[in-house]
């Protein structure tokens, strides 16, 4: 079994020049193992889908002990590097954010997402520095994928978004981040400009409007995330099946994909 530091090194190498890491985000042990069996090179969690499957809304409403338990469950059934969506670190205090991330390191986590949301980017800079200092003191490291929500949250007018995104990317790179996540970017020319101007591997969120993966790879993007979309697809299919059963007395929607369900008993050793 690989150590946390080895998992970090492996995960970081997956973001190297010329690499293109596709992450079909999971939300529990079963979905994480499913991604591994399908050929994923690493496992990423979706904060939203993980919260929903435990009965919480997205946005740091889930207790941290639930996050830790869910993370342990994922780590128990996969043997790939795992990166956890840590939202804003569950605190506005950089020291407390670092403490939270150190607990994830103790579990064996290789990377995290850390978002700015409505916070000033300077606060994220302080969080990144605190995490890196704490990890160094433990003799290890963790991949910080710094997420800028300029586009996702419409933080500035449209004509100012690209410049603001690049400004934040440079700040996060200087602070010690390992990757830069720009969700809701869809213009391939702008994406290419971020690749050229921010000295970090760029992560783009899969959306209906995003360019084809091959085009983004050619532009220099090094990481694609599905976010909560696969979880939404799974729950959407389940809703359709339940409604058909209850409203129409038919099981057709159930049988459409039930045979595609993996043999979890075999995977989990029953």
Characteristic terms for this protein:
single chain; 270 residues; alpha/beta; 8-stranded parallel sheet; 12 helices; 8 strands; globular
| Fraction of residues in β-strands | 5-15%
Number of β-strand runs: 8
- Proportion of residues in helical segments: 40-55%
Q: What summary fits the major beta sheet?
A: 8 strands, parallel
Series of H and E elements: HEHEHHEHEHEHEHEHEHHH
- Strand adjacency order, main sheet: 1-8-7-6-5-4-3-2
Q: Please identify the structural class as seen in this structure.
A: alpha/beta
Separate helix tally: 12
Question: Span between N and C termini?
Answer: 21 Å
- Overall 3D form: globular
Tell me, rounded to a whole number, the average pLDDT.
97
**Backbone CA Rg:** 19 Å
Q: pLDDT below 50 for ≥5 consecutive residues: which ranges?
A: none
Please provide a written account of the structure.
This protein has 270 residues and is an alpha/beta fold. 50% of the residues lie in helices and 11% in strands. It contains 12 helices and 8 strands. The chain has helices at residues 4-13, 29-37, 47-53, 64-77, 94-107, 121-137, 158-175, 188-197, 213-219, 229-248, 252-257, 264-267, and strands spanning 21-23, 43-44, 82-85, 111-115, 143-147, 179-181, 202-205, 223-225. The protein has an 8-stranded parallel beta sheet with strand order 1-8-7-6-5-4-3-2. β4, α6 and β5 form a beta-alpha-beta unit. α2 (29-37) runs parallel beside α4 (64-77) and α5 packs across α6 (121-137). The longest helix is centred in the C-terminal third of the chain and has 20 residues, at 229-248. The protein is globular and about 55 Å long.
């Amino acid at each position: 079994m690989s150590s946390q530091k080895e998992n970090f090194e492996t995960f970081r190498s997956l973001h190297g020049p010329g690499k293109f890491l596709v992450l079909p985000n999971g939300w529990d042990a079963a979905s994480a193992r499913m991604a591994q069996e399908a050929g994923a090179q690493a496992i990423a969690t979706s904060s939203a889908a993980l919260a929903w499957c435990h009965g919480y809304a997205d946005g740091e409403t889930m207790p941290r002990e639930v996050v830790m338990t869910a993370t342990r469950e994922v780590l128990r059934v996969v043997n790939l590097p795992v990166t956890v969506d840590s939202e804003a670190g569950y605190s506005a205090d950089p020291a407390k954010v670092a403490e939270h991330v150190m607990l994830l390191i103790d579990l064996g986590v290789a990377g995290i997402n850390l978002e700015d949301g409505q916070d000033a980017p300077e606060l994220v800079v302080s969080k990144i520095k605190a995490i890196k200092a704490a990890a160094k003191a433990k003799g290890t490291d963790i991949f910080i994928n710094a997420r800028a929500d300029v586009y996702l949250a419409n933080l500035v007018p449209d004509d100012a978004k690209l410049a603001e995104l690049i400004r934040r990317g440079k700040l996060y790179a200087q602070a010690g981040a390992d990757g830069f996540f720009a969700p809701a970017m869809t213009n391939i020319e702008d994406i290419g400009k971020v690749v050229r101007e921010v000295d970090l591997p760029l992560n783009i969120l899969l959306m209906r409007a995003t360019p084809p993966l091959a085009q983004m790879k050619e532009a220099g993007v090094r990481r694609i995330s599905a976010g909560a979309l696969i979880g939404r697809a799974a729950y959407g299919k389940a809703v359709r099946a339940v409604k058909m059963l209850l409203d129409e007395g038919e099981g057709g929607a159930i049988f459409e994909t039930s045979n595609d369900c993996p043999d979890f008993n075999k995977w989990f050793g029953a």
